[in-house]
Amino acid sequence: MNNYVSTGNKTMRHLNVLKRFQDERKLTPISIQIAPTSRCNLRCSFCSNINRKQHESLPLEDIMVFINQMKRLGARTIEWTGGGDPTQYQFINSCIYYASKMGYKQGLITNGVELIDKVGETIACLDWIRISLNALEYVDEIQIPKDYKGTLGFSYVINKKTNDESIKKIKECAIEYNPKYVRIVPDCQISAKELNEKNHFFSEWIAEWGAPFFYQAKSFSQPKRCWWGHIKPFLLHDGYVYPCSSVVLNDTAERSFHEKFRWHRMNQFASIFGEQAIPFDCKDCTNCVFGAQNSLIESLIDEEMEDFV
């Protein structure tokens, strides 16, 4: 699981970034997430950003400037995500091609409904693709590339529409397309208590399915301080950078990227990396799912009894 999802473990492979934070209190981006448009060709019942505006898209030129700035700061990878669905962004192929020429490794998260139609010409530039099989609850077919050379993965959110037919389709797709993994997650639009109960049940259930399936448990916490956005910032289609892609899960987010979680405008964001890192004010982040990541970074500057390992 740690190879395919953001659990924080891979942060340890970037010791130069962590060492600089320990010594100088400065952080720099390793990976960036970009949701270029709010447009989507589905309306999933469990969508955590369902109350978004439906017409926002980032200007292509602004994205180019942003990824140039992040590259100079040290960013290595880009995840094109939602949003909406990134395949619905008018200039998605231009973005992927441009980032590839800059030397970025890239991934794409999509519902797959129009993947080949919209992104067919630059699929070869992507190092991985993750397709949401929940789309099969709304359409009869999704577009899955059979000759793709990168890492193909599927994901599925267990939700109110999940039934025996859903499970059958998921397993059939795994047999037909032979993905590297199929990630199963819970619907996070529930309380922390309910989430913990579902984690216990689902983890045992999915384990019985065997490879390539795995269950990624989700748990809510409130971090002491939030540093994660410095390492993996999230640029939304409204032109703002947010500390993570999961602020939509917080109690007062209203199933949207609420303005209270805005961090910096995209054209100002690069300037924060010249000084010592200042954590995002996470007083409203009641349902953080990046607790482990923040604890890891926090531990680098917690000097109390540090030699007693």
Structure notes:
With 309 residues, the chain is of the alpha/beta class. The protein has a single domain, classed as Aldolase class I (TIM Barrel, Alpha-Beta Barrel), CATH 3.20.20.70. The protein has eight helices and ten strands. The chain has helices at 15-24, 60-73, 92-101, 115-119, 164-177, 192-207, 228-231, 291-299, and strands at 31-34, 77-80, 105-110, 128-132, 151-158, 181-186, 213-215, 234-235, 240-242, 264-265. The chain has a ten-stranded mixed β-sheet. Strand 3 (105-110), helix 4 (115-119) and strand 4 form a beta-alpha-beta unit. Helix 2 packs parallel to helix 3. 39% of the residues are buried. The model has no long low-confidence stretch (mean pLDDT 95).
